[in-house]
Write a structure and sequence with these properties.
The protein is α+β, with helices and mostly antiparallel strands. It folds into two domains: 72 residues, Alpha-Beta Complex (Outer Surface Protein A, domain 3); 83 residues, Alpha-Beta Complex (Outer Surface Protein A, domain 3), CATH 3.90.930.12. 20% of the residues lie in helices and 36% in strands. The strands form four sheets. A four-stranded antiparallel sheet has the order 11-12-7-13, with helices on one face. A hairpin with a 2-residue loop joins strand 3 and strand 4.
């Protein structure tokens, strides 16, 4: 039995789930999300508890069991609580600012880089332009948007300048050895 797949998902108040034709839709206070699941997986809802079951013990079904449960759980958490990711900007003169709902990054290029919000993603700039807070109800979308922001100026190993995830450790390298 899959350790992840066999865990039940308790539904918080205000969250409704619709299951039908291989599509699971979750509605809550933070929005609506839907996900296509494999038709072999069985989703059952009883007394506010959702369980995912698989038809056989084949390797393919075992893999899909945990995946399906994790995707549905991420949707439930997203529409009830939401997801937050933080990015830190390191470097002299590097900063972020908001222009309406668009994130504007000044990270050493000859021009500012604008990142418009996608879907229900919202940006917030804190700490005088050094911290970017990204919020969304979709875990997959927030991860993709944060990866695109980080890709504008990835952290470099010599001085550590660039955009990194909060808590990310960048392995530093020694510079030139110089004459002895």
């Amino acid at each position: 039995m899959s350790r992840i797949g066999k865990q039940p998902i308790t539904l918080p108040k205000g969250v409704k789930i619709d299951v039908g034709d291989g599509v699971v839709g979750v509605t809550g206070p933070k929005g609506t999300l839907s996900q296509t699941i494999n038709p072999d997986m069985t989703v059952a809802i009883e007394d506010g508890v959702l369980t995912v079951e698989r038809p056989s013990d084949m390797r393919h079904h075992r893999a899909l069991h945990g995946l399906t449960r994790a995707l549905i759980n991420n949707m439930v958490v997203g529409v009830s609580e939401g997801f937050v990711r933080r990015l830190r900007i390191e470097g002299v003169g590097y900063r972020a600012e908001m222009n309406g709902s668009t994130l504007v990054l000044n990270v050493g290029y000859s021009h500012p880089v604008e990142m418009p919000p996608v879907g229900d993603v919202a940006f917030e700039v804190l700490d005088r332009g050094r911290t970017i807070v990204v919020t969304s109800s979709d875990k997959q979308l927030i991860g993709e948007v944060c990866a695109q922001i980080r890709k504008v100026r990835p952290p470099e190993p010599y001085k550590g300048k660039g955009i990194r995830y909060d808590g990310e450790h960048i392995r530093r390298k020694a510079g030139k050895a110089g004459k002895v």
